[in-house]
Amino acid sequence: MPGFAIPQAKKENGVRKSKAGFGLVLALVAPWAHGAGFDCAKAGTGVEKAICASPKVSALDGQLGDVFRAALKNHPGQAELLKLDQRHWLAERDATLSAYPSVKEAESGVLALYKARMNFLRGLDDTTWPKPFDALRPALAKLPTSGVKIPADFAKAGVDITLSEDVPLEKADAFPWQADANVRDGLKDLESYGGYRKLAGSPISSVWSLGGTAHCWTEVPFRIEGKKAIAVDSPTVWGDGDCMTDHGIAHIAGQYVAYVVGDGRADEVTLDAAVWNGKAFDPGKQLVMRFDHVLTIDGSACAGSKGACDDFAKLAMSAATRYDRSPQKGVLDTAFAPYDKAAYAALVKAARGPGGPLEKDGQPPELPLLEDTGKMAGFSSDAEVFPLVFRGETLLGLIDHGHVGWRENNDWLVAAWRLKNGKPEAAAAAYISVNRDKLLLAAPVPEPPAETH
């Protein structure tokens, strides 16, 4: 069967069910933006205006509409899964366009998103999958229905797969083979955390090093000949300084492969793999797996009270669900109307003033009132401000992904401040986790160009 899909489960409260980016009618009729499908003279949202401002993005937007319609036609049994997945992708697109002050700065990243999306949709038509993904395909329907971990969960789903063990090395002289010159250089370059990969019976291994705040990999692969370690060309899937990924070597259905897992988003996992042919690594291949996700309240609090604050949690979930569908500026501006505009203006002014949580040159705030979430709980300078009414009082709301410095996660932080004695005071807060749910679709795609850092 072309592509792959599993039946869509009944959605729980808080899961995104529709797309708000270009208006309700467009979201329901055609969940994509088409360059010729709406009047740019009437563009209202920031995303609409950004698409209209870029001929390149607008052209690809039109192409994506054609590709998406073809996917719906070719896979009628997966139509609902395709529409849901397209809405998830559109949210990522909206977030990317909204993260930059101009479409010019966002253009290269957005164009890459469009091209990758079209490659995925076209990949659903592939009836034959490349090695080693052909061995994984029958197990996709058996993967866990939530929180799946790739590639480890393939073993639980019945695939003959063994993953290498990462053996740390504190000293290079603990390396168990006789290293050639290139491998010795790799051992010299070990950073704060490094070692080698151990896989019983494998003719290949690598010296690896993981360093920097971005967790970037350095790899020197080698073949094993008796007691000798002889360097070989690196597989294309191991990019130069590849960061924030999971590297490894695995034995999959009789084949040894080097792999990379990109697992940074709840909606998508990428698995890049290069098969060892006995002399070298074959060109890399990529498998893209697309998932649904659910939003769950992990904690809430209100000023002056102990325990969970259920009524604010409900309000925060409403805000997060709406913003999760289309994370762009203005989405929440009228979500909780009517509100006291004068009171809200005073709150915004105070919050951006000296010592306020939105002070221009100040440190972005931490999620207030919830003392220890155990997760990333800092806002960024790009957090979205919006008005809300809670218990009859107009408050200043703030929503963002969780941050620690420049790093961010998929979860949502929602907090509110009131004005007290002319200064903003934390009124309520909620932490909302975004959790990977059922697999929707999977397809092989051309290997993307290797990234360098």
Describe, in plain words, how this protein is organized in 3D.
This protein is of the alpha+beta class and 453 residues long. The protein folds into three domains: 24-123; 133-283, no CATH class; 293-437, no CATH class. 26% of the residues lie in helices and 30% in strands. The protein has helices at 24-29, 46-53, 55-74, 79-98, 103-123, 133-136, 152-156, 181-188, 310-325, 341-351; strands at residues 161-163, 165-168, 178-179, 193-198, 204-211, 216-225, 228-231, 246-252, 255-265, 268-275, 285-302, 384-390, 393-404, 407-420, 423-445. The strands form two sheets. Strands 1-8-9-10-11-15-14-13-12 form a nine-stranded antiparallel sheet, with helices on both faces. A six-stranded mixed sheet has the order 2-4-5-6-7-3. The longest helix is centred in the first third of the chain and has 21 residues, at 103-123. Residues 1-37 have low confidence and may be disordered.
List keywords for this structure.
alpha+beta, six-stranded mixed beta sheet, 3 domains, nine-stranded antiparallel beta sheet, globular, 453 residues, disordered N terminus
Task: Describe the SSE topology.
Layout: H1 24-29, H2 46-53, H3 55-74, H4 79-98, H5 103-123, H6 133-136, H7 152-156, E1 161-163, E2 165-168, E3 178-179, H8 181-188, E4 193-198, E5 204-211, E6 216-225, E7 228-231, E8 246-252, E9 255-265, E10 268-275, E11 285-302, H9 310-325, H10 341-351, E12 384-390, E13 393-404, E14 407-420, E15 423-445
